[in-house]
Amino acid sequence: MIRLVKAVGLRWPGLLSFILVTTLSGCVTTVEGPYTAKASKSKAVEQYVQLGLAYFQNQEFELATEKLSRALEIEPSNSMAHAALGLVYQAQTEPEHAEREFTTALKHDPGYTRGRTYYAAFLFQEGRLKESLEQFKLASQDIRYEARPQVFSNLGLIHVKLGQLDEAIEAYEKALTLRRDQPSVYLSLATLQYQVHNLKKADRYYQTYWNHVRSGTARHTPQSLALGINIARDKKDLNEEASLTLLLKNMYPDSTEYQKIKESS
């Protein structure tokens, strides 16, 4: 027996590791076998999908494939099973098979937003940024999708990688209107506003990020500290600059960022 924990989540190497949170299952399920003849077709499919996702989470890909394939034997058009199988193939570095399953899932159910985000993340991993962007844009139109703030965060990240800073700022700001408690988004916006020379907004977003660090919901990186130092220098706040420089020295003395800050002092 494998028991799925509440709303199984998994960060898989190569996905949008910055802020993407892929929720593999939307319910709590305990699966035991074998299934009885009285079990309904839809219930059996649901249980096989949940079991397949549980094996996937445990990186038992052969068993995951077996259970998901069983679900598709019962219901060949089941989009959840196809999308989950796409995740398995993606994890096994089988991109052609993964894309086939993702696109099949969306062919059977174009409104399956979670599956669309799986496909968008796959495209991102493959370096197909513009295609990934389009899939996330489509996903963002589903106003009932519970992970919509993350969709806009992902849009922001892709826009950054494409050099579209204004569009990135717009996407990140939308993410915050949908959910405020996203420290990484505040840091991204602080970085972008600094890059476009909007010091006032950069400082405002950075201070909010700092508040998250103080409350323990975020942690400074060499990059975040270097950004704060540069903002402090530009607004001529010597105390803040000295405080952040000391933090950078104590926390990341061997970092490239500290060496650059030290050289520019």
N-to-C series of helices and strands: EEEEHHHHHHHHHHHHH
Classify the beta-strand content into a percent band: under 5%
Strand order of the largest sheet: 1-4
Tell me the name of the CATH homologous superfamily of the largest domain: Tetratricopeptide repeat domain
**Straight-line distance between termini:** 61 Å
Helical stretch tally: 13
* CATH fold annotation of the largest domain: Serine Threonine Protein Phosphatase 5, Tetratricopeptide repeat
Tell me the domain tally. 2
On the 0-100 scale, what is the average pLDDT? 88
Shape: elongated
Would you tell me the structural class of the helices and strands?
A: mainly alpha
Task: Describe the fold and architecture.
With 265 residues, the protein is mainly α. The chain has 2 domains: 1-179, Alpha Horseshoe (Serine Threonine Protein Phosphatase 5, Tetratricopeptide repeat), CATH 1.25.40.10; 182-265, Tetratricopeptide repeat domain (Serine Threonine Protein Phosphatase 5, Tetratricopeptide repeat), CATH 1.25.40. 67% of the residues lie in helices and 3% in strands. The protein has 13 helices and 4 strands. The strands form 2 sheets. The chain has a two-stranded antiparallel ribbon. It has a two-stranded antiparallel ribbon with strand order 2-3. Helix 11 (222-234) runs antiparallel to helix 12 (238-251). It starts with a strand and ends with a helix. Mean pLDDT is 88; it is low at 1-15 and 17-32.
